[in-house]
Amino acid sequence: MNDLINNQGGTPSYILAVETSCDETSVAVVKDGREVISNLISSQIETHKAFGGVVPEVASRKHVEVITLMLEQAIEQSGIRPRDLSAIAVTQGPGLVGALLVGIVAAKTLAMALGKPLIGTHHIAGHIYANRLVRELQYPAMALVVSGGHTELVHLESEGKFKLIGRTRDDAVGEAYDKVARALGCPYPGGPHVDRMASEAEDVVPLPRVWLEAGSYDFSLSGLKSAVLNALNQAKMRGETLEPSAVARGFQEAVVEVLVEKAVRAVREYGSRQLLLCGGVAANRGLRTALQERCAKEGLELVIPPMEYCTDNAAMIGAAAHLKWIRGEGTNFDAKADPGLSLEGWSVQTEAFLK
């Protein structure tokens, strides 16, 4: 049994974290949930580019190829002796089940070999607490999560307590960006290309805003994606050609306006002290700029992690795992990869007894 961590106050914690939820293999060592000692990332973008998207079986095999070496290098670069590590953390879900399994097996093996506790960690909790690597969080807080597979608004009433108040009903923002990019002839991953084209566009193709029901915090991107395809097809039937950058700008403005408006409204309704931007799409310049301008106008505190902590990385997993460490909440060694792991269910269960 490993569901209770035996830790002692007064000494720093060093958590080694493993992240293999999709197509990045990452290992990090994080001190006290705030200070990144080492953070290594091996990207598979070039491998999956040939397929136009992530191939789960290929991703799993690539993780297997590099995980052992990355564990060794992350520990070596941290300067921390393996026996001085406090715990081993690993992304348990959500993610691709085969990819998750590689990280979990590696983390379990290391934890057993060193006699250290295991902390199964929620991937989205990691994205949210990546912000704590740059600034202390103030509660209650509101997190806008935007990534390849997730678009969510998460209310944090207190440290480590998550309440999902809005989610996508179909495509996530990252998925929609990739699909629109493909329609515009951009290579995978398409999000950065659409963002760049949108910033350079002089014209704009007007596209609808999808607000859903009055007061709803949910999102829907499939209709907007279809509107882009319809605009391109109709222009083609008329013998015309739409400027790709104008389409990209219209799409991005439609996405960003809804994200920003709903996030700001949620902050006001729930009395949040901070708005946290989280996930891979947090690297989008159009979204970052729009949120910064709106929050400055509204007098709201906005927290955005630096680019290296926006995309999948193990440092964010170490930051989130620290929430469990300081409360003595660990994970049994029979824990399995869980692609449907609930964020609310992963919330901390007790008050912190170690700070």
Strands, helices and their partners?
Layout: E1 14-19, E2 24-31, E3 35-43, H1 45-49, H2 56-78, E4 87-93, H3 97-114, E5 118-122, H4 123-129, E6 141-146, E7 151-156, E8 162-167, H5 173-183, H6 191-200, H7 222-237, H8 244-270, E9 274-278, H9 285-298, E10 302-303, H10 314-325, H11 343-346
Parallel strand pairs: 1-4, 4-5, 6-9, 9-10
Antiparallel strand pairs: 1-2, 2-3, 6-7, 7-8
Helix pairs in contact: 2-3, 4-10, 5-7, 6-8, 8-9
Characterization of this structure:
The chain is built from eleven helices and ten strands. It is α/β, with parallel strands linked by helices. It has a five-stranded mixed sheet, sandwiched between helices. Helix 5 runs parallel beside helix 7, helix 6 crosses helix 8 and helix 8 runs parallel beside helix 9.
Summarize the structure.
This protein has 355 residues and is α/β, with parallel strands linked by helices. It has helices at 45-49, 56-78, 97-114, 123-129, 173-183, 191-200, 222-237, 244-270, 285-298, 314-325, 343-346, and strands at residues 14-19, 24-31, 35-43, 87-93, 118-122, 141-146, 151-156, 162-167, 274-278, 302-303.
